[in-house]
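Q: I'm writing up a methods section and want to include an example of the input and output format. Could you take the sequence below and give the corresponding predicted structure tokens, formatted cleanly so I can copy it straight into the document?
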Amino acid sequence: MENFREVRAGGKSLKKDYVSIMLWFVGRAIQAASAVDKDVRKEFEQLPDHFTFSLGVMPDGPHMIVGKTKKGIVQYIGWDAEGRDIDLKMKIKNIEAAMLLFTFQESTALATARNRLIVDGEVPHACAVVRILDIVEVYLLPKIIAKLAVKRYPVWSPGRKYGGRVIVYIRTILGF
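A: Here is the clean output for your methods example:
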């Protein structure tokens, strides 16, 4: 066995970088949407205080961590889970499945049905997070792409759809 050298699989750094950027942007967009959208606020109100969830790619990242404070303020925490008590861990099985999700070829519901998403935590909390992700995707994406990313595209007034979209984008980019 000493005559053989160990060969490691090639890294998929471009895909990992893309998913990292998407998770960063979506995490900040969740924080922004919680301040703008009544449905996102309502979903977070039903979650317990100090609730923290993560969405990440197995085996070794990238991750996104979002938490709710005691006052009900939603914050994007980052991607380092070190020393944090995470109530709900949602894990995408591999980088290829993450690419399907974040290139919007597959909705979150379809990814769950195809066993590409693992949930470690309470199922009702996971359902609330998926609903939040769907609303955020509707804000972030044009309708033609958002229809692929969500199970049902909502019927919103133009003010909520376009006005909310502008505010969510501004708050996401500026980080508040």
